[in-house]
DNA sequence: ACGAGCTCCTGCTTGC
DNA sequence: TGCAAGCAGGAGCTCG
């Protein structure tokens, strides 16, 4: 599942491959991934053709490929989105949704099994697409203010994991890195945000930054074929996960068996010893 | 305004 | 064996 480190890995891959390239032809194989382009798939194809890519940018899990004319191709990988660069005559991977033929004879392909992600044209979005402006800065942003975000978290009446997953508070963190960060900071997912000290709030955010920086260095996390970089390679960070997906395995810190618990209709993984149930728990968290 | 829950999607895994 | 339910979950949306 692509979170910030995976999206940044993809961005870096695209930067070296599409920057300066002109789109010669666009093929939309499935309408859903371009659903946010309200004028429809045909218009999407026509309006992109002839444009030239500048260097790809990212905030949180959003990725966009600016055009030299000031617009941008906005992309979100959702749960299973991938960008692949292939020869036009290479066999299509399953679930290939959009094809962009580039002027150097390569073909940029958007592949997405579950189609939670998608592509759209963002008018004037080269610097920061309007569709992205509502989310908070991510921890890799030079202007990220950890103390200010910590204050905002403490002002809430919710559980810490919900706050970490709220992209308007801090972007880029998904279920995997939320669990890893909370383990690193020895904090239970349901701990009430208002009960955190200023230092603890910063500690949790710093932990999230740390685990994502490590994951980025490893080329991202992958459990299966759903996340790959532009060359089709998986990352290696799954070998370094302390708790996520590790139910029954020993906590790397104390050896206690990791527990999986239902949370937000999904799963949370924690060490029952390092991350004790909080005295103050957010209601329904 | 804020917090919480629902929904969209496909394909692999699990259970009867 | 076959079918259905369970599970994976980002983010826009609705509702209280």
Automatic annotation (TrEMBL):
Q: What is this protein called?
A: Formamidopyrimidine-DNA glycosylase
Gene assigned in the entry: mutM
Question: What's the source species for this entry?
Answer: Microlunatus flavus
Q: Which residues form the FPG-type domain?
A: 242-276
Query: What job does this protein perform?
Result: Involved in base excision repair of DNA damaged by oxidation or by mutagenic agents. Acts as DNA glycosylase that recognizes and removes damaged bases. Has a preference for oxidized purines, such as 7,8-dihydro-8-oxoguanine (8-oxoG). Has AP (apurinic/apyrimidinic) lyase activity and introduces nicks in the DNA strand. Cleaves the DNA backbone by beta-delta elimination to generate a single-strand break at the site of the removed base with both 3'- and 5'-phosphates.
What family is reported? Belongs to the FPG family.
Checking PANTHER family in the record gives:
FORMAMIDOPYRIMIDINE-DNA GLYCOSYLASE
This protein's cofactor list reads: Zn(2+)
Quaternary structure and partners: Monomer.
Its lineage reads: Bacteria, Bacillati, Actinomycetota, Actinomycetes, Propionibacteriales
Task: Please report the stretch or stretches of sequence annotated as the Formamidopyrimidine-DNA glycosylase catalytic domain.
Answer: 2-117
Q: Which GO terms describe its molecular function?
A: 8-oxo-7,8-dihydroguanine DNA N-glycosylase activity; class I DNA-(apurinic or apyrimidinic site) endonuclease activity; damaged DNA binding; double-stranded DNA binding; zinc ion binding
- Which residues of this UniProt protein bind DNA? 114, 156
GO biological process per UniProt: base-excision repair; response to oxidative stress
